[in-house]
Amino acid sequence: MPSALPIADPAPADGLVEPAPGTGEVPFGVYVHVPFCRVRCGYCDFNTYTASELRGVRRDDYAGHALREIAFADQVLERSGVPRRPVSTVFFGGGTPTMLPASDLAMILRAIDDTWGIVPGAEVTTEANPDSVDADSIATLQRAGFTRMSYGMQSAVPHVLATLDRTHDPERVPVVVDLAKQQGLDVSLDLIYSTPGESLDDWRTSLDAAIACAPDHVSAYSLIVEDGTAMGRAVSRGQLPAPDDDLAADMYELADRVLRDAGYDWYEVSNWARGPQHASRHNLSYWKGHDWWGVGPGAHSAVAGTRWWNVKHPAAYANRVLQDVSPAAGRETLDAETRYVERVLLAARVRGELRIDELRQEARSRVAGLIARGLVDGRAALGGSLELTLQGRLLADAVVRDLLDELPDEVRA
């Protein structure tokens, strides 16, 4: 089942926000959450629903509900005094956005453009499963203004896909990559490693298969077994082995080496691209602390120092937007301390994003120690930026805790 929403302050029905000092001038993006999947993968705790789980709402109605929230969002931002900005990036995620007709995705994108305007050259991405698109749907998306396809490949090895409950044929991946390229779209492939039962050779097979497709971008995420998922229950019962941390580290190192040799550079701990022009600008906007409005059930938003998240079930979401009240279930206002912590937490993961002079004095004094331990690149530090080494990427959370003074002195030493 989907994970629970955070506990926070109640969200007002009018959705109004009070812009925090110094906010509202950063770029603005839109995320659209399409919470539909053909089957629920055993490892997934995202806010997704199969047809039998919808209860009280139809998938065919989703686009109309999303348009209602976009209109509501425009009113909220205007009445809150948040500066109007055109949209820099749009990302349709899920779920499987391409479970909807391409014409519905085009309709939602057109509403975003009609409401705020989309900057020339903006990045517009949709996630898709390899078996959820064809030549016609991809052509429709390209004509509508989409610029990028992000395919959930996950693995090229049948037994790994079976453990993940992925139903697509791995032979379909190069086909849909080529279809997107024929339309002039950027292509990203998402991979998952350290699946129970996956060997290092299995992982090398998946990496080689992904590179053979010549995508513009590759994401590789270590599997996290979440409580409450089918996989989590199988691991707790001993039916599946838990992922091995040492093997996961070996897999990460292999991914970095193989991708680098194939011409991909890392720009965020789990992301590689064939040059900076192919990096995911939308995801970078999250890591850089830009504003975005999240449309759809369970979608999260962050605007002008306030963060909120929508009710999760599509029926509850539809009920809210049809009454012209905020679909938000909860919200929080980020104070200066929280914004600083999140800036360090997120920017440290992005190559060259965190400037050392942004850190507080005590954190700056620890950079030399991180360099000595081989976790931070010394040459980049001389240039003023904090850049993780390969070992630092493997221990990114520990580096951040050190910078935020959350480790005891004896551990830090």
Describe the protein in words:
- The chain is an alpha/beta fold and 413 residues long.
- The protein has helices at 62-80, 102-116, 135-144, 158-163, 172-182, 200-212, 230-236, 245-261, 281-287, 314-322, 336-347, 361-372, 378-382, 390-394, 396-403, 409-412; strands at residues 28-34, 87-94, 118-128, 148-154, 186-193, 217-222, 265-268, 271-273, 291-295, 300-303, 306-310, 328-333.
- The strands form two sheets. The chain has a nine-stranded mixed β-sheet with strand order 7-8-6-5-4-3-2-1-9, sandwiched between helices. A three-stranded antiparallel β-sheet has the order 10-11-12, with no helix packed on it.
- Helix 1 packs across helix 10, helix 2 runs parallel beside helix 3 (135-144) and helix 6 runs parallel beside helix 8 (245-261).
- It is globular.
- The model is unreliable at 407-413 (pLDDT under 50).
Question: Key features?
Answer:
disordered C terminus, 16 helices, 413 residues, alpha/beta, 12 strands
